[in-house]
Predict the 3D structure of the following.
Amino acid sequence: MRIHYLQHVIFEGPAAIEDWARQKGHTVTGSHLYRGDPLPGVSAFDLLVMMGGPMSVNDEHEHPWLLPEKQLVRKAVQHGRAVFGVCLGAQLIASALGASVYQAPEREIGWFPVRRVTGERIGALLPQRFTPLHWHGETFDLPAGAVRLAETDAVPNQAFQFGDNVVGLQFHMEATPQSVEMLVENAGQEIQEGQPFQQPPHMIVAQAPEASAAVRPVLWKLLDHLVGAAK
């Protein structure tokens, strides 16, 4: 299985997704769009993975690679490739499929519980309740035909599927202790003290080893499913 990831900033890489791919014997390649790497053609991958980033999917003037990236996502979906988006990546899928992305009612930063909203289809792979890492200030409408999979108290649209081969997660189940430290080091200034859905940096880092390990089996199940759904 050929897996290609799209990375938007130096400090938000594939982390545990790459660990999974290596363990399963898949081929992994990547495009670092922030440094000008070219996008792959649809024929070059079976699973396309889009990582997170601090920019908005609407910032096409500041980041001109966003427009061709959305076009690639749309083509990948049309050609039946498996597509997996994390945080900004999920918002890119939503935008590429015609949905709006906009400011969320609350900024979520830290380890907060997520609730499954359906046990059908890909929702059956999610626990009824789990606690991944959040780091986002925007949210999205569901694309037409998508199925909402999960919610939080602050932001209703936390995960969705489109068909059986496309999954978007607003949260970061790919997080590892190392990737969390990089996030805090590079984006910790975004955290506002006293906000109900934001944890202080030291708490985020301290919880990372146990919390990231707890959601790792769920991530594995989702990725294994997408491998089976790829065309």
Remarks:
- The chain has a mean pLDDT of 97.
- The first strand starts at residue 2 and ends at 7.
- The CA atoms of residues 113 and 131 lie 4 Å apart.
